[in-house]
Write a structure and sequence with these properties.
The complex is a heterotrimer of chains A (391), B (326) and C (142). Chain B is α+β, with helices and mostly antiparallel strands. Chain B has 7 helices and 14 strands. Chain B is 18% helix and 31% strand. Chain C has a 5-stranded antiparallel beta sheet, with helices on one face. The chains are: A alpha/beta (391), B alpha+beta (326), C alpha+beta (142). Chains in contact: A-B, B-C.
Amino acid sequence: MVAKIADKAAIVGIGATEFSKDSGRSELSLAAEAVKKALDDCGLKPSDVDGMVTFTIDQNEEVDVARAIGCEDLKFYSRIPYGGGAATGTLLQAAMAVATGVAEVVVCYRALNGRSGQRYSDGVSGNLITGSAIHYGWYMPFGLLTPASWVAMFTQRYMHQTGCTQDALFEVAHSTRQYALNNPAAFFYQRPFDRAEYDTAKKICAPLKLFDCCQESDGGCAVVVTTPQRAKDLRQPGVLINGVANCLAKDQEEMTSFYRPEIARIPEMDIAAKEAYAQCGLRPDDIDAAVIYDAFSPIVLWQLESWGFCNYGEAEAFVKAGNLRPGGRLPTNTHGGQLSEAYIHGVNGIMEAVRLVRGTSVNQPKKTVNHALVTSGVGVPTGGAILGRMA
Amino acid sequence: MTPEEITAFEAKVQAYVGGEVSAPRTGKDDVNKAMIRHWAEVMGDENPVYTDEAFAATSAKHGIIAPPTMLLTWAMEGYSMAQTPAPDAKLDVQRELHAIFDAHGFTGVLGTNTRTEFYRDLRPGDQITSHQTIDSISERKNTARGVGYFVETVNTFTDQTGAKVGRQVFRVLKFQPNVATAEAKAATSDDAMPAAPARIQAPRGHDNAWWWEAIDAGKLLIQRCKQCGTLRHPPRPMCGVCNSTEWDSIESSLEGEVFSFTELSYPKFPGYPYPLVCGLIQLSEGTRLVANIVGCEADKVYIGMKVKGKVERVDDKTVLPNFYPA
Amino acid sequence: MNKTTRRFASVAVGEKLPPLTIPLTAGLIIGGAIVSRDFTPVHHDKKAAQAVGLPDVFMNILTSNGLMGRYVTDWAGPECTLKAIDVKLGAPNLPGFIMTISGEVKSRDEAAGTVDIAVSGDNNVWGTHMSGSVRVALPKEA
């Protein structure tokens, strides 16, 4: 059975705060500003909002955001678990709410002081930020404490199985840096980068080096989802949610799915891709550009395979052929991604995918973007969304 | 401090930037063997070119040299810096600047960075003079130690002929001690020295305590479904194959191979020994577990490497399985 | 220490230096301050250290410099020449802690005959005390 969700909802507004390393203010202030900007973008008012979705790990309560911006009555609110794996899961919730009439205007938000406050790279400890202490107890005593270390374990295996080299990781990182050169909102705006800097940077967890890891950030992002009918009357062209899926595959753990017969791939994303394509009848060839979740460089490679842009084990060749670049087959992370713009848990990526479809990215490809893909964090239950132009 | 007071204070200290700290200061002692030997003793530095006349004479150094990192030592003011100056004493520019910081509550001082270049080896008899300028004062920063300013001075060192022998950029933090930190609170008590932490412990609950208790007793167990015999790790309350909640366990042979691994380089967590390698170990029984790979260099570890485990104590609180090259 | 000096040609980028573990005593911390003629009270007077928020006297940066320099010259051998040393301090070193210094060759300059070594000194309680890099010239011929 395929979900009948295609084109039942549209993203009409996007908004973000400044991205920084020290916002100097509360996460609630970031959330309120991002949501208000997203509403302003499409010309809706806080009183139009009747639904909200965020991540379970977001510290901003719906009631607080609603009061801060002056919402009236809400009929729908829900949250998605598993960190960055929730990014496009918020769109799935919003689309279901809008498609069923549970709500008409849903705001999806994420705001965090991810740099000046609790940093994920500080690792899990007795004072856990997510998930169960029992689960991390299988890893903490051995020193496997950080997201980078868990991803490194998969990366080492993937390289072993496919022959993928550090060149592929560098190409992913370098392509985001080139895009960020033009993006004033990006940490690495106008900051050139080369292989020597990549190679000599600090080792994090082999094979990951410093610039294989995202820019932990302070900031907030929000998007507004409503019905395609209502979208027609708003300030910005609506961007349809053609397909959206969030999946959890067999023998999944939170960041440590080490016990499957093979670990050098991400089955939850394979399933999500299949589901999202089936919802809208599109194929990989129909996707013109992408925002692929890049908390770490190697995870982009695996997702390219999951979404069918290349076969398993061929991602290195795909990226080295320049396919992520401006004139390539699949311009990817044109805002600089989380490696080079900011790490707002993928919601800044949803915003960029919307811009790609609107035609307003700072690195807008020359070709027409009819459909853009945006994905969520990897290692946890995850998914993605295919966005497209309204007729 | 109000924003206006901060602005006025910053203007006052910034006026010192670019100025000479004092007239060039020539070291009270020439470079000499006694001070070199005292230094080498404390540093545990057994380099014979510092202290062994015979060795040094026949080496490429052709005689005793001073440890290069002593460079600043040759021009230090010395004991008087520990004394509170008399109220009417003429202060050098740096002490004057520090006094302004002190008067505004920035009483803490901490060296944070040095960048030093050495242009030649120094030898006994060399007479070192330092020429010091205040190079920059940062904007106000929030640091782990408290709010403060980084003050950077540049020292150029010359010898008795006037030739430059080295250069050192020295950065200190002048800060308001942060009395709110736990460390500061602990500091009021004499027996509050922080202890070396152990590794982070695995919390023990209904479904996993038995496994860790077996580890404490020196055994690596693998949970086994009583009904269908399926092995599972990490332990779970129900068999995912037959749904039985009845289980027992078998003891692992501790034989296995590396399925994947990573060397953990950064950040380094207190309580863990680095270099540190985490492996995903495929046990011969068929299950996998994460454990450290020890007993060989990190760059010698490879996927497929045969390993043999040993359950052993790794710190005061922790017993773990470690895997060695088989 | 090693009394033979390493040759430039024998050193490869990526080579790791053997780690050095140093138990930190009050004697080392205070002695290090005194032999570097640094009489700032926080390095020899526990009360002064407590007034700035630390429980005991802490190592001065010149001793950290000295230990980092020693670590590299121990490895390189007596006929090497130290050209530059950059030290950045992190967590304080206090009596009773144990510091482990590690290093790795990061680059080689063929023309100058120098190698750059990244060095980290980590204490067992609070983590990284010092990090930095040391440039050392090595003889070219045997």
